[in-house]
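JOB MANIFEST
job_type = single_chain_structure
chain_count = 1
residues = 227
[input]
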Amino acid sequence: MSTRKIARPRAAPRLPTERPGQAGGTRDANRTARIRQICTAALPLYLRHGIGSVTIDQIVDRAAIAKGSFYRYFTDQEQVVATLLAPMAAAMRTGMATAATRLAAARDPDLLPAIYLALATELTAAVTPEPDVLRLYLQECRSPPMGACRPVRALADDIARQAIELSQVAKDFGLLRDTDPRVGALTVIGAVERLAFAVLAGEDVGGLAALPRTFISVILDGVRRPR
């Protein structure tokens, strides 16, 4: 039985440089509010036109600020996209790394449902607060890793890498069938993305709270090693 080194989450994407001002003070609050204002203006434009088609002029017009104000808080649109994704991306990367650690400590296939259910529940909680950010990720996650799309594609690549490592760890410890973990992991990612589209589109796929348990049950019926 092989022993695999568990990968740690990659460093977070580059975000706006901190400005002077005491944390929690007026300047800090104003900075946070202005960053939120710019991101709030950018998100619907990205969803409507695609990240690569949106200009800084469009963002500042929608935010009703001067163009110079944009550059006080962001170097470019890549930072805007990274800022939009940051909370969801951090939670997803951490959740998958935690699941890998739990799998590495497991020895019994009966532990798989609880480990994967915990992961699915944590990921659902990570994406639920900002459905439009999830829409943006799903819309752009297959884009080339260029320009402002880089943070989205970096997250997609990290998710794929960590999902494959999850499957490999489980296989190494005899918890999954002897199949190619890359195929299994990418198949699961595709299914998750389709379910996410269905939920966001209002399709009747059952309640969001019940989805993780149903999905994990379906997946494990196919990949768990029989006893």
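[summary]
The two ends are 18 Å apart (CA to CA).
Residues 6-13 have pLDDT under 50 and may be disordered.
exit_status = 0
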